């Protein structure tokens, strides 16, 4: 088995930990924010987990082992949610989410931009760059509309 598979599992566990933090902290704010965060993370996780599964297969894992290992990384999400609840301040949820949500949001934005911007700068076809920018803007508009409802 290649070391890249194990590194991917570690990165996926840390990613899931931050997802657990975000979901739990969002539910501490309100049900609405919690459900919106959960849906956003689920939509992000579907293609992400498929890609991670493919990485594990390429690293030498068989299908069953790759599936079990992917499932085991979900424990990171549970630990993240437990940590967010444990870290809740006796003064109220406001102090907890005051650091958890900016931390997780900033991490998500950083990772997204680190992945997207270099590709946009290297893209030779302006139409493809425009499509990516329009889809990025569409995602932002959808988030704003969901926040306003």
DSSP strand content: under 5%
Unreliable segments of 5+ consecutive residues: none
> What profile does the largest beta sheet have?
none
Treating each run of at least 4 consecutive H or I residues as one helix, how many helices? 5
Jot down its keywords.
149 residues; mainly alpha; 5 helices
Write up this protein:
By secondary structure, the protein is an all-alpha fold. The protein has one domain (1-148). It is built from 5 helices and no strands. The longest helix is centred in the C-terminal third of the chain and has 30 residues, at 93-122. The relative contact order is 0.13.
Summary, kept brief:
The chain is flat.
List the SSEs and their pairings:
Blueprint: H1 3-29, H2 31-58, H3 63-86, H4 93-122, H5 126-148
Helix pairs in contact: 1-2, 1-3, 1-4, 2-3
């Amino acid at each position: 088995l290649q070391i890249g598979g194990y590194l991917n599992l570690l990165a996926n566990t840390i990613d899931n930990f931050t997802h657990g933090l975000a979901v739990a902290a969002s539910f501490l704010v309100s049900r609405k924010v919690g459900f919106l965060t959960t849906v956003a993370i689920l939509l992000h996780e579907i293609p992400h987990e498929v890609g991670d599964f493919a990485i594990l297969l390429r690293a030498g894992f068989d299908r069953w082992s790759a599936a079990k290992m992917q499932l085991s990384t979900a424990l990171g999400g549970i630990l993240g949610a437990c940590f967010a609840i444990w870290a809740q301040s006796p003064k109220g949820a406001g102090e907890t989410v005051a650091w958890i949500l900016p931390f997780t949001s900033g991490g998500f934005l950083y990772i997204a931009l680190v992945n997207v911007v270099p590709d946009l700068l290297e893209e030779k076809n302006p139409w493809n760059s425009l499509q990516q920018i329009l889809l990025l803007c569409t995602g932002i508009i959808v988030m704003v509309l969901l926040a306003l409802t």
